[in-house]
């Protein structure tokens, strides 16, 4: 049988077998290898070249056949069938058991078979498990690294939140800087950190320096305010090999931004305090001016009252004067004591009533002005209303009828002279709105925790377009010289300063109603 026929014949037999089969010559040159062998050893050209892949256990057939050299070489040189156990190392942890079988074909060729005695499925599973174990190990390492990063990030986030909270809590930046330096030292595990302002830092940017003599590295992070550097954070680390990481630099940079915000906040606070002082000063000046306006308006109101009060006083004074003249004449003409006594008895009630009338007017005027009661006190609001009614008697006589409906109210804490001025302004306006004859209804009641004083007239009413203006300073519908435009504006301000409110409703031809609400406590 020639070589070609032999090789073709062997190829037909071994090509589809699962064992690794080689046809070699007596020198070990591979003449043929089936698909399994080709897959495992694609570059092998001589069977001896595979020896280094295996550890061998030689199966001893005869005592004189003991081989102390390479079993593959023994398989080539022996003229008899040869068998040996082999161990092949797949990787560091896994080994596969093989059997080696050699048998001569003829004088030229031998067949050498490597049979895998291990379970391929187990090997595949092992490889998969090993791959999975490697991946899991890698995931664990990644998880540990991620955990460390998250913990570091949490520490940094907590530091940012802490600084933000302290900036909201404190105005004093010195206190905030002290807290920041302590927390930076703790968070970054460095041995020193400081804030400097007394250095030349006009051109400074974020940078680091190495001091080999002191074996430290320094990180400089400037703090800007309106594009100007006004301070710098200096961080010190002892280990020269441990360079500043990007996340550490970013953290300190964020802290510097927060500190800049803190400095801006403190500066703004100082400006606001200065503005507050200026506003307080302006407010005092405004209050003084308002007081002057109030006093001026009061003088205007008093001027209007003087004529009426003088008229009201003149009437009883005239009666007293007339009676005294009559008494004097009778005394001069008659010397009879009985006649004089009878005359005195006759004129005395008239004189007494005139005197009481004058006393009431003086008391009402005193209650209205309250010159001896400039402080806040508790008063009966009804007294102030009655005093105001008494003082405008000259405006209401033979023209306006005033009807009152007072309910029982507790004493009200107020400035009586200012509240009386409110009543007077509204009552005078009501009287002046009535052309011929009319009436004014005054009613008091309690609504929740407020005293309500209603003053309603049946005068000519206020045009709708003026209702929103009547409380404006300077607004008046009266002729020049008759009104200042301050009365109702001051009335509204006085009521509001007493934590109350004043409203108005009006209809042309039907009249106007003012409602004043003053707190009872």
Model description:
- By secondary structure, the protein is of the alpha+beta class.
- The chain contains eleven helices and 17 strands.
- It has helices spanning 3-14, 35-40, 71-77, 120-169, 173-188, 246-333, 337-369, 381-391, 393-396, 416-433, 487-497, and strands at 20-25, 30-33, 54-58, 82-89, 95-104, 109-116, 192-196, 207-211, 216-225, 228-237, 377-379, 400-405, 412-414, 438-447, 450-457, 501-507, 511-519.
- The chain has a six-stranded antiparallel β-sheet with strand order 2-1-6-5-4-3, with helices on both faces. A five-stranded mixed β-sheet has the order 12-14-15-17-16, with helices on one face.
- A hairpin with a 4-residue loop joins strand 1 (20-25) and strand 2 (30-33).
- Mean pLDDT is 78; it is low at 1-5 and 62-68.
Q: What is shown here, in short?
A:
This protein is an alpha+beta fold and 521 residues long. The protein is built from eleven helices and 17 strands.
Describe the structure using short key phrases:
521 residues; five-stranded mixed sheet; 11 helices; 49% helix; disordered N terminus
């Amino acid at each position: 049988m020639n070589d070609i026929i032999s090789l073709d014949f062997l190829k037909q037999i071994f090509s589809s077998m699962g064992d690794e089969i080689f046809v070699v010559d007596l020198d070990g040159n591979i003449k043929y290898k089936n698909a399994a062998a080709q897959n495992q050893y694609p570059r092998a050209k001589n069977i001896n070249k595979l020896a280094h892949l295996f550890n061998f256990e030689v199966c001893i057939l005869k005592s004189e056949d003991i081989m102390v050299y390479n079993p593959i070489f023994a398989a080539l040189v022996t003229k008899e069938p040869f068998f040996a156990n082999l161990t092949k190392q797949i990787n560091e942890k896994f080994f596969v058991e093989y059997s080696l079988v050699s048998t001569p074909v003829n004088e030229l060729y031998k067949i050498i078979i490597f049979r895998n005695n291990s379970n391929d499925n187990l090997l595949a599973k092992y490889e998969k498990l090993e791959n999975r174990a490697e991946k899991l190990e890698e995931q664990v390492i990644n998880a540990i690294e991620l955990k460390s990063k998250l913990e570091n990030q949490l520490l940094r986030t907590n530091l940012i939140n802490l600084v933000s909270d302290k900036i909201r809590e404190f105005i004093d930046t010195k206190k905030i800087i002290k807290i920041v330096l302590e927390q930076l030292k703790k968070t970054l595990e460095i041995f020193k950190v400081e804030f400097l302002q007394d250095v030349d830092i006009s051109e400074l940017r974020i940078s680091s320096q190495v001091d080999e003599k002191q074996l430290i590295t320094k990180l400089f992070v400037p703090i800007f305010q309106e594009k100007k550097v006004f301070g710098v954070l200096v961080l010190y680390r002892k280990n020269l090999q441990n360079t500043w990481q990007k996340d550490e630099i970013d953290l300190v940079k964020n802290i510097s931004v927060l500190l800049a915000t803190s400095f801006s906040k403190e500066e703004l606070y100082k400006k606001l305090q200065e503005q507050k002082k200026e506003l307080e000063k302006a407010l005092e000046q405004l209050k003084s001016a308002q007081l002057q306006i109030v006093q001026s308006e009061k003088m205007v109101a008093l001027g209007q009252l003087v004529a009426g009060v003088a008229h009201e006083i003149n009437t009883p004074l005239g009666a007293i004067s007339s009676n005294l003249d009559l008494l004097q004449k009778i005394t001069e003409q008659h010397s009879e004591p009985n006649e004089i006594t009878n005359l005195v008895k006759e004129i005395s009630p008239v004189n007494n009533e005139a005197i009481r009338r004058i006393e009431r007017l003086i008391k009402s005027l005193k209650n209205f002005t309250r010159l001896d009661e400039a402080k806040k006190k508790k008063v009966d609001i009804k007294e102030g209303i009655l005093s105001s009614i008494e003082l405008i008697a000259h405006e209401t006589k033979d023209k306006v009828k005033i009807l009152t409906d007072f309910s029982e109210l507790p004493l009200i804490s107020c400035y009586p002279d200012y509240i009386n001025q409110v009543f007077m302004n509204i009552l005078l306006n009501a009287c002046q709105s009535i052309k011929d004859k009319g009436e004014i209804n005054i009613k008091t009641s309690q609504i929740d925790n407020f005293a309500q004083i209603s003053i309603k007239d049946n005068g000519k009413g206020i045009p709708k377009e003026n209702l929103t203006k009547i409380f404006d300073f300077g607004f008046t519908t009266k002729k020049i010289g008759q009104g200042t435009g301050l009365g109702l504006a001051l009335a509204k301000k006085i009521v509001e300063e007493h934590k109350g409110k004043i409203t108005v409703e009006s209809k042309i031809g039907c009249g106007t109603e003012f409602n004043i609400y003053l707190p009872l406590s």
